[in-house]
Automatic annotation (TrEMBL):
<dbReference type="InterPro" id="IPR021866">
    <property type="entry name" value="SpoIIAA-like"/>
</dbReference>
<dbReference type="Pfam" id="PF11964">
    <property type="entry name" value="SpoIIAA-like"/>
</dbReference>
<dbReference type="InterPro" id="IPR036513">
    <property type="entry name" value="STAS_dom_sf"/>
</dbReference>
<dbReference type="InterPro" id="IPR038396">
    <property type="entry name" value="SpoIIAA-like_sf"/>
</dbReference>
<protein>
    <submittedName>
        <fullName>STAS/SEC14 domain-containing protein</fullName>
    </submittedName>
</protein>
Amino acid sequence: MIETIPFDADNVVGFRITGKLRGETLDAISASLEDKLRRHAKVRIYAEMPRFEGVTPEAVFDDLRLAMRHWRDIEREAVVTDEAWIRKITPLGHAMAPGIEVKAFATADREAARAWIAS
């Protein structure tokens, strides 16, 4: 399931993702990203993942397509989760797309993540 998280900063796309990441979830993320990119040259992504249960194979390919299409359009990404393995692999996003600042935050640090993504 996906829920939009509003931000005062118009260049930030915010989501809360629970359960399994599916293709339709990425469709919603892509639509929001495209909408922001009509108004901004670069956008930032904020993702809370409180109960993440994995990714469907379809979503893996959709995610790769989305990343390939927009890696130059994304300036920062904040991932908020208590899943240790997600926080551990999050910095790999920077290695794969060096122009994007990527940081992982624990749920207790949600406000710090929101401040960082909007600054």
